[in-house]
């Protein structure tokens, strides 16, 4: 198949969600507490489907098992990545994700969860929780038991356009007034540490997972440092944010025609601003803000044009 695959997102309601996915992207959301857009997902908790073309209506999981040539016969046991947009209308729970080995042995899942965020928008003076101040596991456990969140948790300011890498074992939380595009391993395993004592409509607090959270948290915390690599082609700019063990993430800033060669099995593309086009052979495909697509293995060269920005990833 020598054409891009565009996908219909799946929306997830969350206690901390809002309406930014409708307000910013024009999506038809299920409620005013919509927290997540699962934009390119093969996870059983919500699978994206092809929105047009000969494979219309197919889930990514089906394509992975039945049309593996689309992904260059990627040897991974499951589709490896999950692309989301998160609307943190209020604070998310403070949480941590397990690494691969722990997830496989304790949760019997295929993988753990490294993730990263690109900040699409945020309120003035926005911040996130990223890391902690404990020097030992014992100190971490004691601080959690005593609820000393102000001294334990590290908070950092964020701005629109920031990129943040959150490897497994990192205590973290998005905070109120933040809209991010998240790219992660294809896992939904989360250990909550603190949820601000919130209750649902029935007065129930959400479960915490303190024992497992403490076991997987990296102590002491050390922020992962990376140096973006910037390439220019005329007026276009291509930024490689990070190349990790599980994914490589780019930002494409297109202002004029760009002739592109694809040197990986497949690309996951999310258009975050503007509009443009993708030309494959003699066929043009419109690209608009909020579109999510996969460029398959067979697509070796293509042309981009217009004025738009996209976040692009591959395993």
From TrEMBL:
- Gene Ontology MF, one: mannose-6-phosphate isomerase activity
Give the protein's recorded name. Mannose-6-phosphate isomerase
Where Zn(2+) binds, per the record, is at: 97, 115, 172
* InterPro entries in UniProt: Carb_Metab_Reg_Kinase/Isom, Man6P_Isoase-1, Man6P_isomerase_Firm_short, MPI_cupin_dom, PMI_typeI_cat, RmlC-like_jellyroll, RmlC_Cupin_sf
Per UniProt, the cofactor note for this protein states: Binds 1 zinc ion per subunit.
What Gene3D superfamilies does the entry give?
A: Jelly Rolls
Q: What SUPFAM superfamilies does the record point to?
A: RmlC-like cupins
Please tell me the species this chain comes from: Cytobacillus oceanisediminis
Q: Which family does it belong to?
A: Belongs to the mannose-6-phosphate isomerase type 1 family.
Reaction(s) catalysed by this chain, per the record, are: D-mannose 6-phosphate = D-fructose 6-phosphate
Its EC number is: 5.3.1.8
Record-annotated Phosphomannose isomerase type I catalytic domain positions: 7-122
NCBIfam families named among the record's database cross-references: manA
What keywords does the record list, in alphabetical order?
Isomerase, Metal-binding, Zinc
Domain of life according to the entry: Bacteria
| Keyword set includes Nucleotide-binding | no
